[in-house]
Amino acid sequence: MAVNTASDAPITEWQGSIEDIKNLVTERALTGETMLLNMGPHHPSTHGVLRLLLELDGEEIVTCLPDIGYLHTGIEKTIESKTYEKGVTCTDRMDYLSPMSNNAVFCMAIEKLVDLDVPERAQVIRVICLELSRIASHLVWLGTHAIDLGAMSVFLYCFREREKILDMFEMLSGQRMMGSYLRPGGVWRDLTSDFMPALESFLDDFPRRVDDYEKLLTSNPLWLDRTQGIGVIEPDVALAWGISGASLRGSGVNWDIRKAMPYSGYEQYDFDVPLGEHGDVYDRYICRIKEMRESHKILRQAVKRLPSASGGFRSDNRKFVPPPRAELGQSMEAVIHHFKLWTEGFSVPDQEVYVAIESPRGEIGCYLHGTGGTRPRRVHFKTPSFMHIQAIPEMSRNHMIADLVAIVGSIDIVLGDCDR
Amino acid sequence: MVNIDPAKNPVEVLNSAIPGVVQDVVEFAGETTIVVDPQQIIPVMRVLRDTPGLIFNFMSDVSAVDYWEPGGVYDRPGRFAVCYHIYSMLYNVRLRVKVYLDEDEPEVETVSTVWPAANWLEREAMDLMGITFLNHPDPRRLLMPDDWHGHPHRRDTPLGYETVQFSFNAEEIMKHKPFAKE
């Protein structure tokens, strides 16, 4: 078959149908008065594969149409073909910046369905993992948000600190990025001997590092110009559009699931929920910076709590949790449970639950429906990035295209979190 | 000092506001599921959102379930269900409202007029489960390409499988690969 080269290809008119977007953009776009421009799917400041179809009047945004689905991984469908425990390893591929949060919400949904207990020590270890995840995720957000607005050095500093957290995750789970460490009934294994010294050293060091980031940005006139009064989202609009997490708290709405519906023993920790006043990009920035300090406070308390916490790192319920390796040599019961759990898995009632936790990005919810057998009927994750991308048109209207970069950065989206 | 109405029981409120709308109430693991008539979903949601003592002001999630089992059987009032997970920030209460939908014409009115947040959640359910949300403001596919046939989250859609290609069977497998045909 002959291939047309650029030189001999006839120059033709655009063949697409303008009818497809007729009701979604203004009439001015159809007459050519405003310009239609694609930002993405692969644009550095869309933080993943996100296409934003923009209708521009000069540099001013008239309409913004987010288009997702480029990363659709089919994780929910995949989990439906796996046993519950094996499904856990799929969940951390969704929000790849905070895999532990996804692990946690899926494990908690399973625990709620089968009424499985989690020992106190496992709860404390979970809190440590979740808060380290929050810091690691916020560091990527801060670094990339700053680089979007032209500040290079913050990015390098943030990744330097994040590296230490990834090292700790590697000690726990053997994986730097996709550590499937949390399991139904607790965690995979106990903390390794080198974990606590690494955590202590990180905790000693971290507050000074946050001071450094703040020195670079918080009262930097360029940063203030680019962020204050930009992408304002009123509290009632934020609630109507389902925005959650720090993006909602930047608008002054005091809702943190760790406080409202505590899980993993969060009610025993002393921490504050930072709130913004204006709901602009700057307030969302300040909220997350303060959140990192609060996470540090929680981690300090968790480290103190750990030695006195009772129970092991995982539940003793043999119907759901495999026995320790050492027992297999002595106990026939242990062999039977081990065999049943790894070949067939455990059965879950034909009921449904919805569990939500506070991930670094906001409310991540897991709707889990059992069949009475060993595989789920339906798993659906409500993820914060999905809701936040939906609200980008609300936030970006009448802003400049350069402000859109600041807005997208400020709501902290991860596209893996959006297209499951 | 703001006077806040005491929290009310959503089932009682619904029963007195729209008699006969509640078809079933299921309590499991501390969660309440209210099964309602799909024809009445908009008035139900408005009552839940606006009644003092309920104020479910936050739409957490819209999930669709397919109860199909191999052999085409299902033991529910309808093959599909849509679960609305709503949350009252004032009273710190979560609630699941559920509607069962017919196998042949799974359709229900959109609630994106009550909570705009439902817009994309419904588009996702429409795309992946094939449920029609009537009067939806933007009924395009969300995750799958526009020309995609079928709804991948239905239980009768099988997961794809690709034969593993080794050096000894490479040529044989290349013959059957689903490359685009000219």
How would you describe what is shown here?
The complex is a heterodimer of chains A (420) and B (182). Chain A is mainly alpha-helical and 420 residues long. In chain A, 46% of the residues lie in helices and 11% in strands. In chain A, a hairpin with an 8-residue loop joins β7 and β8. In chain A, α5 packs antiparallel against α12 (281-305) and α7 (195-217) packs antiparallel against α12. The longest helix of chain A has 29 residues, at 120-148. Mean pLDDT of chain A is 90; it is low at 1-7. Chain B has 182 residues and is of the alpha/beta class. Chain B is built from 4 helices and 7 strands. The longest helix of chain B has 12 residues, at 118-129. Classes of the chains: A mainly alpha (420), B alpha/beta (182). The A-B interface holds A 1, 24, 68-69, 72, 74, 76-78, 80-81, 112-113, 115, 239-242, 253, 255, 260-261, 351-354, 356, 363, 365, 367, 369, 377-378, 380, 382, 386-387, 389-390, 419 and B 28-29, 31, 33, 57-61, 63-67, 83, 85, 89, 92, 94, 96, 115-117, 119-121, 124, 138, 141-145, 152-153, 155, 157, 159, 182.
Q: Give a count of the beta strands of chain A, DSSP E runs of length 2 or more.
A: 8
Roughly what is the average pLDDT of chain A, rounded to an integer? Answer: 90
What integer value in Å does the Rg of chain B equal? 21 Å
What gross morphology of chain A would you assign?
globular
